Amino acid sequence: MPTDPVLSPSAPRGPGGRRALVARRVFRTPLQRRVVYAVVFEALAILFTTGILAALGKPGGSSLAVAVVSSTVALIWNVVYNSLFERWERTAGIAGRPWWVRALHAVGFEGGLILFLVPAVALILGVSLWEAFLIEAGLLVFFLVYAAVYAFVFDSVFGLPDSAGGAG
To answer: How many domains in the chain?
Structure first.
């Protein structure tokens, strides 16, 4: 007799050990999970970045170009960074992704990303490196919060990756 996946002890675990909203494993491999995570994150990021830059008075076309370039770079960086971070997480024996690990993840990711994006933003918007840095710093503050909230929601829906103790 089949068991109810919602009651199954093998149902994926979300943050805090709670069962994830999706009662079964959706992603067959860690890579598949990382790709879906990153693509959805970046699709939303394009919308947010374009809106924020437009609100700051930057032209719509340039705002969209910055958003698309930023998201493309971030997507590649996301896959590379998350692979390295999850390897470190397994090696360090950290399970359950406490908030300090999430904060470390977000700061490391955004810190690396800002190094890649400042020159691109300066070029696309036709501003100095300093102004591009200030724009990126403002976006960084937004995306630090967004990254932590997005990760928590994603993990709550689909469960933590196996590297963080999400294997039911």
So the answer is: 1
pLDDT along the chain (168 residues), means of 10: 49 74 79 87 91 90 93 86 90 85 87 91 95 92 88 88 61
User: Is 3 domain-assigned?
Assistant: no
φ, ψ for residue 48, nearest 5 deg: -65, -45
Q: DSSP letter at 162?
A: G
* Chain position carrying tokens 């399970």: 95
Range of the domain at 95: 29-150
End-to-end CA separation in angstroms for the chain: 20
Q: What is the pLDDT of residue 8?
A: 53
Structure tokens at 91: 């090696």
pLDDT at residue 48 in the model: 93
Helix pair angle (99-125, 129-158), 10° resolution: 140
Is position 118 within any domain?
yes
Of the CA atoms within 13 Å of residue 58, those in its CB half-sphere come to: 23
Residue 157 lies in a domain: no
